[in-house]
Design brief:
Chain lengths: 94, 503
């Protein structure tokens, strides 16, 4: 069972603000999910190498060659705010 | 499990400033230092996309959907980054992992468009190496590959003062980095500085990084802790960031050592935290209070396949490693009879070392060539803020000049005062300058004899002293005669003729 504190911690890391009720709800739901995934622990994995990637391929690399870049105006079109060719973001600090 | 390690973090705002008093700290503690060096690799393109790595470009002109973290894009690893990582690992005596992978490190910050950094966590490409610094072996814990973040222009500069926003330039995002983590084997500020300088020299020899601390192509994070002298248990460490020069590195360690020992002396406890070195005050200040933010929730990067490095590729890369400063330091005293100090100066920079070796190969006397390069040539390069490959004088020209001195055609002083400067700044050849300026040494005894006679006879008082055996006065006469000859008289002949005259 996941603790309320763990849910609050994860929410904080994800920059989510949760109400008391939500913390309660998600604690239950996330616990269920974790329990479900926990079934994997029943499988005997003795002598099996951990797999980090399901695709049976290694070494996909490219040569160090410059590719065409995007025009800045195009790049900044996605920015809610821009200024002097920069992306404008809320000031970070505490 | 690897030991927990911290990583390059975007700069956050200072939270509280601890003012240090300047009293000398007591010396009952031993300082334990580990360095995390971030080296920007000199590839043409970024680590996971084809955008150029180009410092000083206009903001947001070297970006694409991949490095901007647009939805649905896929990173593709730059082969050269892996080659450079292996090259560096081999040069530092590391074990190269046959198999490794990339991981996601999650944190939110505007300079990180994907909200995660692709790095390597539990399977770094290189492990357990070492670097010899002044005869002491410093362990290298690990080397891993990762991507750099963008650059934030914070509000607070004059133009932006009072504003409530920051500006972001993502050009640097995705620049390949090697993080080189030392073991906590360093025991003084001086040693840490020497380690960083030695590492920089190697990175430059390998041509994988230009090692410029001021411009940020090489960045050092320093872990400092104290323990009572004789203890084997390390104390709580603080990590110091924003060290932008070797001088700052040493200073940051000294000031942090002082801060920690004052806390320990007064019975306090060190809080593990990240601190920022402030160049202007020479102090370290606390950077963040929320240690909770250190939870990076690493997991394997699903968008990249694992890496398998074959022995044949490693061998191929090995071939590209030049003779390193460490080997040159052993060879120079043997091959060229140079002192340890001279060797150190000549081998620190690969270009200088190769230039020196070329001059010697052309037949110059090794000791003479070393003296000239370390002395007048270096002085000129410093004065003109240039370096040995960007000056006009080729190794052939310096070897020629030294040859003319060796043959007695010109003397040292004339060579330094009249010829060297022109070679370095214009690149003409010595023979022409000698002819044009009429600098050839006067070796004709008849001509010099009259100068000697004149000098001795017009200074009867000094002549008397000389005859009484006061050798110092001889220098006075040599000086007079050299001046009269416009510096061209052969000092050897002048000395000989003075001796003959007073006999």
């Amino acid at each position: 069972m996941l603790s309320k504190q763990q849910v609050e911690h994860v929410a904080k890391l994800a920059r989510l603000s949760l109400t008391e009720d939500e913390v309660e709800l998600y604690t239950k739901q996330l616990s269920k999910i974790l329990d479900y995934i926990d079934q994997l622990n029943e499988v005997n994995t003795k002598g099996i190498e951990p797999m980090t990637q399901p695709i049976p391929t290694v070494n996909v690399m490219r040569e160090d060659i410059v590719k065409k870049q995007f025009d800045r105006s195009e790049v900044l079109r996605n920015a809610p705010y821009e200024e002097y060719g920069f992306f404008r973001v809320p000031k970070i600090g505490e | 499990m690897v030991r927990p390690y911290t990583d390059y973090q975007p700069i956050m705002y200072a939270i509280n400033v601890i003012v240090l008093n300047t009293t000398q700290s007591k010396t009952k503690y031993e300082v334990v230092i580990g360095l995390e060096v971030h080296a920007q690799l000199k590839t043409k393109t970024k680590i996971f996309c084809g955008c150029p790595v180009d410092f000083g470009a206009d903001p947001n002109t070297n970006v694409c959907p991949v490095c901007l973290g647009m939805p649905g894009v896929l990173p593709v690893l730059n082969k050269q980054v892996v080659a450079y990582a292996v090259k560096t690992g081999l040069a530092l005596g590391c074990k190269i992992s046959k198999h490794c992978k990339f991981d996601r490190k999650q944190y939110f910050y505007p300079d990180l468009p994907k909200n995660y950094q692709i790095s390597q966590y539990d399977q770094p490409i290189c492990t357990s190496g070492q670097l010899e610094v002044n005869g002491k072996v410093i362990g290298i814990e690990r080397i891993h590959m990762e991507e750099d973040a963008g650059k934030l222009v914070h509000a607070g500069s004059d133009r932006l003062h009072g504003s409530d926003y920051s500006l972001v330039d993502y050009n640097r995002t995705g620049t390949p980095l090697l993080e080189i983590v030392s073991k906590p084997d360093l025991r003084s500020a001086e040693e840490a500085k020497d380690y960083a300088q030695t590492l920089r020299s190697i990175l430059r020899y390998l041509e994988v990084c230009d090692g410029n601390l001021e411009e940020g192509s090489m960045r050092c994070d320093v872990n400092v802790s104290l323990m009572p002298v004789g203890s084997k248990t390390f104390g709580t460490r603080c990590e110091i960031k924003n060290v932008n020069s070797f001088k700052s590195l040493a200073r940051a360690i000294e000031t942090e050592t002082e801060r920690q020992s004052e806390i320990l002396d007064s019975g306090g406890k060190i809080i593990q935290e990240t601190r920022l070195f402030e160049e202007t005050s020479g102090k370290t200040i606390s950077m963040r209070s929320k240690e909770e933010a250190h939870d990076y929730r690493y997991f394997p990067e699903p968008d990249l396949v694992p890496l398998e490095i074959s022995q044949s590729w490693i061998n191929e890369i090995k071939e590209t490693i030049p003779e390193l400063p460490h080997d040159k330091k052993i060879r120079y005293p043997k091959d060229y009879s140079l002192s340890i100090d001279d060797t150190k100066v000549l081998t620190d920079d690969r270009n200088m070392a190769e230039y020196y070796e070329a001059v010697v190969r052309l037949g110059a006397n090794p000791k003479k060539a070393a003296n000239w390069l370390i002395g007048p040539v270096t002085a000129h390069l410093k004065e003109h803020k240039t370096d040995i490959i960007n000056c006009c004088m080729t190794p052939v020209q310096l070897a020629d000049l030294l040859g003319f001195i060796e043959k007695g055609i010109i003397n040292d002083n004339i060579a330094k005062a009249e010829i060297l400067e022109e070679l370095l700044s214009k690149g003409t050849n010595s023979e022409e300058i000698i002819k044009e300026k009429g600098l050839a040494q006067i070796t004709d005894e008849g001509e010099i004899k009259s100068l000697v006679k004149e000098a001795l006879e017009t200074n009867p008082e000094q002549l008397k002293q000389l005859k009484e055996g006061k050798d110092k006065v001889k220098g006075f006469f040599v000086g007079q005669i050299m001046k009269k000859s416009g510096g061209k008289a052969s000092p050897a002949v002048v000395n000989k003729l003075i001796d003959e005259y007073i006999k």
